[in-house]
Amino acid sequence: MSLPTVELAKCRLRPWRAADADALVAAWADPEILQGSSPPEDRSVAAAMRWIASAEDRCERGLAVDLAVANLEDDEVVGEVGLSSIDQRRGAALIGWWVAADARGKGVATEAIDAFAAWALADGGLVALVAEISPDNVASLRVAENCGFQPLGPNAWVRKR
User: Fold this and answer.
1) What residues are paired with 94 via a beta bridge?
2) Do the bridges between strand 11-15 and strand 92-99 make them parallel or antiparallel, or are there none, so unpaired?
3) To the nearest 10°, the Cα dihedral for 1, 14, 58, 17?
């Protein structure tokens, strides 16, 4: 897999850049994002820079695909979409996302996840994506449903090719 750049109506999916480190640090400190994700213990700018610098390597090695979700106007990061636990043999991966507070409720997550999932299930060569979502995370449940994910279990939703 290679890291794509995708222009959408409300946002752009693109590889992370060193200049995005502050946005990543802010996300790692956002209480709503923390509820549904597992950020690293070290949430410093230096840690964000290391994570960003290793994104292409993680992708090339088939470990993860992480893309920034950016505003079309100023290219500032407003979210992230990613694949992890990629199992090429089974053609499956976990999918995750977050959206910064100022971009929530504007349809950015739905547009970004729908496009990213379509890419992963076509160009990414996967046949199934699983989203692990807490039943308390109403916004992410709505995004998953709007993007064609089906309930798989109490905390899991799946979208297939």
Assistant:
1) 84, 130
2) unpaired
3) 150
* 40 confidence band (pLDDT: 50, 70, 90): confident
DSSP-derived 3-state class of residue 114: helix
- Architecture of the domain whose range is 6-160: 3-Layer(aba) Sandwich (3.40)
**CA 25 and chain centroid, separation:** 15
Q: Which residue has the tokens 């695909």?
A: 65
Q: Tokens 């989203």 correspond to what residue?
A: 131
Encoded tokens for 122: 């076509």
For residues 9 and 7, give the distance between their C-alpha atoms in angstroms, rounded to a whole number.
Answer: 7
Neighbours of 131 (CB within 10 A): 22
Question: Taking the domains of the chain in order of start, what are their residue ranges?
Answer: 6-160
pLDDT in tens, 65-78: 999 999 999 999 99
For residue 82, which of 26, 137, 131 has the smallest C-alpha distance? 131
* Residue type for position 155: N
Residue 138 in this model has a pLDDT that exceeds 70: yes
